Amino acid sequence: MKKIIIWAAAALGILSGCASGSGSASKDAKMDRFIDNLMGKMTLEQKIGQLNLHSASGFVSALRVTEEDENVKLLRAGKLGGIYGSGNVEYLRDIQKIAMESGAGIPLITGMDVIHGYQTVFPVPLALSTSWNPEMVEKTARIAAKEASASGINWVFSPMVDICRDARWGRIVEGGGEDPFLGGELAKAYVYGYQGRDGVYDNTDVMTCVKHYALYGGAEAGRDYNSVFLSRQEALNGYLRPYQQAAYAGAASYMSSFNEFEGIPATMNTYLMDELLRKAWGFDGFIVSDATAVLEEVAHGIGDLQEVSARSLQAGLDMDMNSDGFVGTLEKSLQEGRISKADIDRACRRILEAKYKLGLFDDPYKYLDPERAAKDVYTPEHRAFAREAARECLVLLKNDGVLPLRKGTRVAVVGPLAKNGEAMAGSWSMSSHNAESVSLFQGISEVTPATYAEGSWLFKDKDLEESILYGMIKYFAPNYPIPELHTVPQQKLVADAVAKARQADVVIACVGEVANMNGEGASRTDISMPDAQLELLKALKATGKPVVMVLVTGRPLTLNWEAENMDAILNVWSPGSEGGHAVADVLFGDYAPSAKLTTTFPRAVGQLPLYYNHKSTGRPHPDYEPYRKFTSCYIDELNGPLYPFGFGLSYTTFEYSPVTLSAAEMPLSGSVTASVTVTNTGSRDADEIVQLYIHDIYATSTRPVKELKGFKKVHIAAGQSVKVDFTLTAEELSYYNHDCNWVCEPGDFEIMAGPDSERLQKAVLTVK
Question: pTM of the full predicted structure?
Answer without folding.
Answer: 0.96
